[in-house]
Each structure stands twice: as C-alpha cells, then as structure tokens.
Amino acid sequence: MQSFTGQFREGMNVCDRNGDKIGTVKMVHQMGRAAGGPTTGTEGYVHIDTGFLGLGKDLYIPFNSFRDCTSDCCFLNVTKDELDRMGWDQKPFGMF
Fold it and tell me: Are the beta carbons of 78 and 18 closer than 8 angstroms?
C-alpha cells in the first residue's frame, strides 16, 4: 500500500476518483505512534471541509482511502455518490 501521508497539506483539494472536487484538507491526524516511537505513516485520517467556503459537512477520511496525490489534489478511491455510505462523517474514536 502506498502512503500519501506526507503529501497532505492544509487547503489542498480532495477529489473523488472521477476528479470531482469533494472539499479541502482542514487538518491531518496521524495515528499509530507506539509509546514515543515513530509513526507508521499509514494510520490516520484527513479532516476535510466540504461545501462552498467549507460550509458543508466535515469528513474524516482514512489515509488508506486515497489512491493518488498530485501537487494540487489528492484523489479518493470512491466516487462522490458513494461518500454517504462510507461513514466518514463520524469523527473517529480517539480524535480531539
């Protein structure tokens, strides 16, 4: 599995697998740090603002749900129509 963790940055576009914009990166939440050790780089979530000017709902998308990142956009492995079924509108347990 390829990790795009280091490529996410605040304000970056997030698009579905067809290239339709979903929203922008609000914050990256990296998890998987073992007792002061390094992070694994593959566990965590990207907090996304959706809607015009971020006035839509928040999404919390796991790193492993991204299939590609460019300098301008990170692409999900699902379509816009599949988003509501993914459960990404629920803040993951353990996140502040």
Answer: no
Establish if 70 belongs to a structural domain: yes
Dist. CA 40–CA 80, nearest whole Å: 29
Does a structural domain hold residue 72?
yes
Q: Which residue has the tokens 């490529």?
A: 7
pLDDT digits (tens, 9 = 90+) for 18-55: 999 999 999 988 776 544 444 445 678 999 999 776 57
Tell me which residue of 79, 91, 93, 2 sits closest to 47, measured CA to CA: 91
Q: How far apart are CA 77 and CA 32, in angstroms?
A: 22
Residue 91 forms part of a structural domain: no
**68, amino acid identity:** D
